[in-house]
Structure formats: C-alpha cells, structure tokens
Design goal:
The chain is α+β, with helices and mostly antiparallel strands. It is built from eleven helices and nine strands. The strands form three sheets. A four-stranded antiparallel sheet has the order 2-4-7-8, with no helix packed on it. It has a three-stranded mixed sheet with strand order 5-1-6. It has a two-stranded antiparallel ribbon with strand order 3-9. The longest helix has 35 residues. The protein starts with 7 loop residues before the first strand and ends with a helix.
C-alpha cells in the first residue's frame, strides 16, 4: 500500500576536523628527529594548553556566576540577596545572554542558530516520533529575547526568536532496525484517509494545493546549510512514511535512517503568571537528535491532536456506541439507565484513549 519515495537531504561538511588532542600532539612531535627539539615542542604544547584552559575557566566561572542569579530553581533567592533594582537585573540578564551567545557562536564552539528554513526542512518528515507536537507559546516569555536582539541584532533570525532560541552543532546519521508495528499501522491508516480525502476533494479545502504541485515540491532534494565547504554529502532519509507498506511486511523488521544534530541547546524563559516577575532562564542541552524528531527539544510542548490509530479508535468506539443506542431505542421497553451506562462507558474509553495518546 503506497509507493516508496526517495527523500534525499544534502548536508554540508562542517569546518571542524574532529581529532583527539593526544593523537594530534603525538603525530606532530614524531616529525622532530632531534629528541631535545621534540621535548621543547611538547613543553610548548603544554603551555598553550594551560593558557587556553585558564582563559576558558575564567570565562566559564564568570558566565556561571551570572547564571546562578537566573537559575530557575535557586536563582530567585540569590537575586533577593543581591538587593538589585529591576534595571540592574535587566542589565545582568543581557550580559549573561551575551556571554552565552559569544561562547556558543563566536569562540570556536561552532554552534549555529537554527533558521526557519532549517526547522521546516528538519520537520518535513517523521522518524521515530509519531506525535503531532507544537509549542504552547502562551507559557513562554517574549520580553527577554526581544530586548536582547534589539540590543544585539542578528541576521536571519527564526520567527520564534522572541520566545526561544535553538542552537545546533555537528551532523551525524542514526539508523535503527525494528518491527515498528504501531508506526506502520499509523502510516497505512493515514494513507487510506489521505486517499479518501483526495478522492472526495476534501484535501483541497484544507491544503489548497493540487497533488501535482505537492509532488513537484517533493521531487527537489532538500538542504541543510552549515556554512561550511562546498563538498557536501547527500544522505537518504529512510522513513516509514516513505516506504511501500503492505499487510505482508507488517511483521518484518525494517531499517530506518535519519541525519542527526550532534548537539542542540535551547534557551528560553517561562512566562510569569503572578505579579512578581520570574527571572529564571532555562538552558537545556540535547545530544544526537534526529532532524525529523526536532520537536523533542521544543520548550513547553503540547500535543494538539491524535495519531491516525487514535482517530480510528474514536470512530470505531463512536460507531459501536451509536449502534448500541439505536438498538436499545428500538426495543419495546427502553431502559434509560442501560443507555446511560453504555454512553458513560464509551465516553470513559474515549477520554482514556485521548489522555494516553
């Protein structure tokens, strides 16, 4: 059921060459034939290492001192001890963000801000996460990052930059082999309803694009820009939604594949519901996140809908309830308590399905 689609993503190689420091030093020192010169070179490497480490320790301690004032758990107590005015706290907030952005983006940490195009490309498919997830923007503060980017402008900011910021670094590939029974069933159901909507013309009311236009858009390879060299690599995104599925291969193991972001950092602040302004700044770190499952790192997530399997459960439950109620009403003697018990049971099952989705 359904045809296999080839989804290629083009990844630029990053400007960093990953290599262990001891291996680099050993390789370079082996180029010296004279033993005394080799020893002097090793001493020089130690001095450079200690100088860089001392500088980073000073920078890190200063940044952590500022963050201790905005730690979501203990920061409020430390701020009260400092007896600072709101204007002074605002200045310290921007100083901390400036240190953080400089450490991540400008001091050779090679983190980059994710753009709207990169987020759209990354979320254009489904990998292992098969839930419709969005951000509950009503729980996020807009004042902090708006003030920061007003003072420190940055090009090509994403549309959500006033609420939260996502940094990324490194590219990898994730592969997984399993049965994926639930994901296969969801895909088959989604394809069936998609065909039904296209056949009845309902899909045009929601999407406004013809199938030919959508097909033309999917044929073009998608690209993630990492501001690196031109010689990139192409990786095939192997998703269940792009595979040819049938009843026979539901019980067979399959292998799926997706490029990953090696490191991701999300910075945001929760909105203050009380009169007293909360100053906590959340800095969350994630590792090896598949691009198609980037929703995992989003702050204040909520599930706005159900999977195709959940919708089928709802429809089947509603149909059974309707048939049961009609059958009860057609009986010579109607027992209202029996109907009430049936409707209560079905309603409870629907609520359980929704909450456990």
């Amino acid at each position: 059921m359904g045809k296999k689609k080839i989804d290629i993503i083009q990844l630029d190689r990053e400007s960093v060459i990953p290599i262990h420091k001891p291996k680099l030093i050993t390789t370079l020192s082996s180029l010296f034939e004279d033993g005394s010169e080799r020893d002097e070179f090793l001493k020089f490497c130690k001095r450079v290492e200690y100088t860089i480490r001392a500088w980073y320790i000073l920078q890190f301690e200063e940044m952590m001192h500022l963050y201790s004032l905005f730690d979501p758990i203990h920061g409020a107590y430390k701020l009260e001890q400092q007896t600072l005015s709101p204007e002074e706290v605002d200045i310290l907030e921007l100083n901390f963000l400036a240190y953080l952005f400089q450490a991540l983006m400008m001091d050779k940490s090679n983190f980059k801000l994710t753009t709207d195009d990169e987020v759209e490309i990354a979320l254009s498919g489904q990998y292992r996460l098969n839930l419709p997830i969005i951000v509950d923007e009503s729980k996020l503060d807009k004042r902090l990052l708006t003030r920061y980017f007003a003072k420190y402008p940055h090009e090509n900011l994403p549309h959500f930059a006033d609420k939260y910021i996502i940094f990324r670094r490194g590219i990898g590939i994730d592969k997984m082999t399993a049965y994926f029974i639930n994901a296969k069933v969801d895909t088959i159901i989604a394809r069936f309803f998609g065909f039904l909507f296209r056949w009845t013309g309902i899909s045009r009311c929601f999407y406004g694009k013809s199938s030919a236009q959508c097909k033309k858009e999917q044929e073009n390879p998608i690209q993630i820009n990492t501001d690196a060299e031109r010689d990139g690599l192409s990786v095939e995104r192997i998703h269940i939604e792009n595979m040819k599925l049938s009843i026979s291969n539901l019980i067979k193991k399959i292998t799926i594949q997706e490029p990953t972001f090696d490191r991701m950092i999300v910075v945001y602040r929760r909105v203050s519901k009380k009169e007293k302004l909360k100053r906590g700044i959340y800095v969350r770190h994630f590792k090896n996140i598949p691009m198609a499952d980037m929703e995992i790192v989003l702050p204040e997530k909520k599930n706005p809908g159900l999977t195709p399997t959940d919708w089928v459960k709802f429809l089947v439950t509603a149909l059974i309830g309707l048939v049961t109620v009609i059958g009860s009403l057609s009986m010579p003697k109607i027992d209202i308590w029996v109907i009430f018990a049936i409707l209560s049971t079905l309603s409870g099952y629907c609520v359980k399905t929704y909450l456990s989705a």
